[in-house]
């Protein structure tokens, strides 16, 4: 009995002879790597910013690939990776009803507070 082993390398995620795999359908092929969202914190920044997406087999590979793709000039100090299936977002069409309860709480706006001069990042 012969056993066949297929090796997968970076970038091998569901490509066929017809071209690259269609990852927009949501149908998961067992050969497709999951999609990861990449967030980078720059040297001057205080927060992480979304810079793009990539496919990787696991979180460690996603961090390595993100380092190679998005921080080639040593501009980042921290990388976050989140598998796309774990990100949930509100619907922009429902923004009015979502933010409506906050509109009547004007006291929460920062215009009512005097900030000291020492606070530079607010």
From TrEMBL:
Matching InterPro entries: PaaB, PaaB_sf
Superkingdom, natural source: Bacteria
Pfam family for this entry, one: PaaB
Name listed for the protein in its UniProt record: Ring-1,2-phenylacetyl-CoA epoxidase subunit PaaB
């Amino acid at each position: 009995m012969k056993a066949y082993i297929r090796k997968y390398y970076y970038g091998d995620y569901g490509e066929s002879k017809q071209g690259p795999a269609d990852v927009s359908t949501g149908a998961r092929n067992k050969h497709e790597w999951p999609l990861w969202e990449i967030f980078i914190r720059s040297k001057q920044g205080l927060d992480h910013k979304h810079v793009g997406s990539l496919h990787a087999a696991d979180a460690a590979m996603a961090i390595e690939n993100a380092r190679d793709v998005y921080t080639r000039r040593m501009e980042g100090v921290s990388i976050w990776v989140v598998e796309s299936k774990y990100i949930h977002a509100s619907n922009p069409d429902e923004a009015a009803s979502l933010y409506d309860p906050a509109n009547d709480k004007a006291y929460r706006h920062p215009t009512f507070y005097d900030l000291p001069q020492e606070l530079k990042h607010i």
